[in-house]
Amino acid sequence: MATIKDVARMAGVSTTTVSHVINKTRFVAEATQKKVLAAVEELNYAPSAVARSLKCNTTRTIGMLVTKSTNPFFAEVVHGVEEFCYGAGYTLILCNTEGNLSKQRDYLRMLAEKRVDGLLVMCSDLDEQLLELLERQKETPMVIMDWGPESPHTDKIQDNAELGGYVATKFFIEHGHKTIGCLTGHSEKTACRERLKGYRKAMAEAGLEVKEEWILEGDFECESAVAAAKQFIAMEERPTAIFCFNDIMAMAMISTFQQAGINVPEDISIVGYDNIDLAPYFSPPLTTIHQPKRRLGKSAVEILMQRVKDKEHAPQVFEMIPELVIRKSVKKLN
Questions:
Q1: 73 carries a ligand binding annotation
Q2: Which domain of life is it from (predicted)?
Q3: Which of 91, 237, 274, 296 is 20 to 30 A away from residue 178, measured at CA?
């Protein structure tokens, strides 16, 4: 098996230069890079991650806990994380928790055993039990993305959820809607409470009544949206518009309504949240609140890298600003 000395000898450079090229830790002239990479390819050289971690006290790996990477919102964020990790010469270990406490505990143990340099947490199931597990990982640099409370040991990225809820509801009101319902996410989650707060604020400003029976709780998955749509269908008096707390639930609700002969936006208007890649191609194209998902992933890794370099810096909270993307799922009544 080839060693770093073999590569250096073939490329006519020092082992230090080979190390910088492979690890992308310092600028190396393009011509030199090409010679080193050609030698690496010809010799089929692969540096020992174990040796490097012992020497440098870094594994150049990042762990990421995510509820379900098949969910389009999480998938797009993960893509942003992976893209940035690749560019920085880091390996990403992705762990799907699926809300299972045993899997969360086992993954955290496994990531600790692998000595990951840092941890990203993006779990819609971020409850007290998982927070307690994370609190035990105080020595591991960590960024919590979007769902959890601030912690003295972690940095945090969140969307301005109250503003997002306000903008979505105000758009309905500006289009003449006065009876507006909501399909929320988990009611105990901070982001969901803030989005609902924004909805109530817009309704109050317009002097409109909030009917509590029109605020239904979902879980950010399709099945809960189908059940909620059936509840709305069964109501004698339905709202003319519904604000869904993510795009997947909005799409499942539209599909269920249409199967029941209720057309969107002719009979009922829908606004989603996230602006996933599928949103413009759905029927009708979905009006939604945009979250910059790939930038969210990139920012999370950048912040985590800062924490890896300086574990003592004060916790940071970075806020993403939501934006309305107007398409074809809202009918103008005025």
A1: yes
A2: Bacteria
A3: 274
pTM of the shown model: 0.79
Indicate the fold that domain 161-290 takes in CATH: Rossmann fold (3.40.50)
Answer whether 4-47 and 58-159+292-320 agree in fold: no
Any known ligand binding at 220? yes
37 contact partners, CB below 8 Å, separation of at least 6? 21
> What's the pLDDT at 190?
81
**Sign of the dihedral through C-alpha 122, 125, 129, 131:** positive
Residues belonging to the chain:
334
Give the strand pairing for 288-290 and 323-325. antiparallel
Instruction: Tell whether residue 318 is among the known ligand binding residues.
Output: no
How far apart are alpha carbons 57 and 45 in whole angstroms? 22
Options 2.60.40.420, 3.40.50.2300, 3.40.50.300, 3.40.50.10190; which CATH number does 58-159+292-320 get?
Answer: 3.40.50.2300
Read off the pLDDT of residues 123-155 as tens digits, 9 standing for 90 and up. Answer: 765 667 777 777 777 788 888 876 555 555 677
Per-residue pLDDT tens digits for 292-312: 888 888 888 988 988 888 877
Which residues are CB-contacts of 71 (< 8 A; sequence separation ≥ 6)? 220, 221, 248
Across 206-217, average pLDDT: 97
Q: Which two tokens stand for residue 292?
A: 């910059």
CATH code for the structural domain at 4-47: 1.10.260.40
